[in-house]
Every structure is written in structure tokens, then in C-alpha cells.
Amino acid sequence: MSIQWKGVMPAITTAFDKKGGIDHKFCARHANWQVDAGCTGIVSPGSLGEGNALSLEEKVALWTTLVQAVGDRVPVVAAIAALSTAEAVTLAKAAQTAGCTGLMVLPPYVYKSDWREMKAHVVAVMKATKLSCMLYNNPIAYGTDFKPEQIAELALEVKNFHAVKESSADVRRIMAIRELSGSRLTLAMGVDDAIVEGVGVGVTCWVAGLVNAFPKESVDLFNLAREGNLEMALPLYQWFLPLLRMDTVTKFVQLIKLCQQEVGMGVERVRAPRLVLDGAEREQALATIRHALANKP
Fold first, then answer.
1. Are 34 and 42 in contact (CB under 8 A)?
2. CA distances from 257 to 53, 152, 292 (A)
């Protein structure tokens, strides 16, 4: 299975059973539901997949499940994030062995430093395998900002660096990267509530969050935007935005899993230190979800 960084790729959630272990049967079912709706790849386990709360062994088992479930239909992309470069390299090699087609490479957790050190880290991870790599730039969440000129420098050095998931929430970055890198890199949007704007300036891939609960709507929105059919895209986008904005807040995992529960495709269980939403916060979220479901165009 080769990979083209295009279309809607869910940053898929990780389902847990009542004992707190990974519900592999449901994960396989969920991934197939996403692909049946037109998604073009599966990314796991990133921030939304609670990767920071999974052991290496759990990640490998999860990748194996997803590859067996949908790997002959779409690429399975391993999200690689760790405290150390050595651990990240080990994860990358394990993902390749498990059958993943690509890597989404994140900066190290916790440690935030300068470009020299961050470059050394991502180069080591990308060069650990021959898998196609996407760099994940999310300065809001991770405190490390890969600037367009740094991304262009990285593209000159690493042959299997093929795409950037831009999650700075600044759509101007898309054109800045394109200006410096030309067609060398595929540009992906990682912020749900900026997808139409991103597509307008050249994004060809959406690593999406709310797609976990709304795959058809996500694929339809992306395709309409790519086709330039704003007459149909904008009403759908306006309806979707209150939900898409759930992807950009601290408790996005809990919110998106609650959406899944409300549409009957998953449960809201999360792994500590996360806790399920409660009280007024949960009621407000449910009101937003249920209003959207009652008024779906």
C-alpha cells in the first residue's frame, strides 16, 4: 500500500473497554466505518488517539489491528511522539514492522528547544525508516513552532519527508510554506474549524477530528471545498462549525468521544489523567451536539 497525502484522514480516537484496555474489535469497526464514508487514510494514535497514555506495546497492537482492518484499503499512518529521540526512533521502526504505510512525526513531549535540536530530532525519526513522513506542526499544543523556512530546510535534507500537517491556526502559513517549498511538500490542515479556508489556499489533505463522529459530513465538506462549490460547502460548514470548534480546545478528546457516543459509534471512555465530562460542561456540550443533530442539512 503506497500513500498519497490527500483527502480526509481521521486522527482516529482509541476506544477503551470497561476494564480500561483497548477495544480492538471496535477500533477495527470504527476504522472501516471511516473508510466506507470515503476517508483516505487512518492516523493513530495521535493526540486525539490519546497516544501519550498508551504504552509502546499498546501502540504496536493498535497499529497491527488497524493494518489488518483497513490496511489493504487505505494507508495506516503511525503518529510518532515520545519524550526522547531514541524512544521516537524505536516507535517509528515498530510502526514499519507493524505494517504502517506512513509516519506523522511530532516534536518531543515536554522538552521545548531551538531549531537545531528539533531538527536533529525529526531528522532522526524520519530517517529511521523509509516510510513517507508528515511533519506535525502544532505550536499551540506542543510549544514548538516549525517555521516555514525551517520546514523548507528540512525538505531539502530528508527525501522521505513529504507532507506538513499545519495546525498553527494561521492559514497564512500555508502560502508561506508553499512559497518556500513549491510543490515539494503536500500541505495538510490539522485544525478542523479552518478547513475551508485552508483548502482555499492549497490544502489537499485534512487530518481531521470530528470526522470520528461525522465521517460523511467531513468528506462531503472537504470535497465540496476542493471542487470550489462554495454554494453548497458554506451552509454545510456553517452547520458544522460549532462541532468543529470542539477540536480546538483542551478537552477535545472528551468532546469528540462524546460526539461519537451521541451518534451511536463509540463511547465516551477516556484514559486518565483525562476524565469524562460532567456537570454544566457536559450538558453544554450535549446541547451543542444535539442541536446539530436535530438541524443537520
1. yes
2. 16, 36, 16
Q: How far, in Å, CA of 8 to CA of 180, rounded?
A: 25
Angle among Cα 160, 32, 141 to the nearest 5 degrees reads 55
Name the pairing type of β-strands 76-80 and 102-105: parallel
Find the range with the poorest average confidence among 139-148, 154-163, 272-281.
139-148
- DSSP per-residue string spanning 181-237: HTTSSEEEE--GGGHHHHHHTT--EEEESGGGT-HHHHHHHHHHHHHT-HHHHHHHH
Whether the full predicted model's pTM is greater than 0.85, yes or no, is: yes
| pLDDT tens sequence across 261-289 | 999 999 999 999 999 999 999 999 999 99
Nearest CA to 255 out of 278, 277, 283 is that of 277
* Domains delineated in the chain: 7-230 (3.20.20.70)
Say if CB 243 and CB 285 are below 8 A apart. no
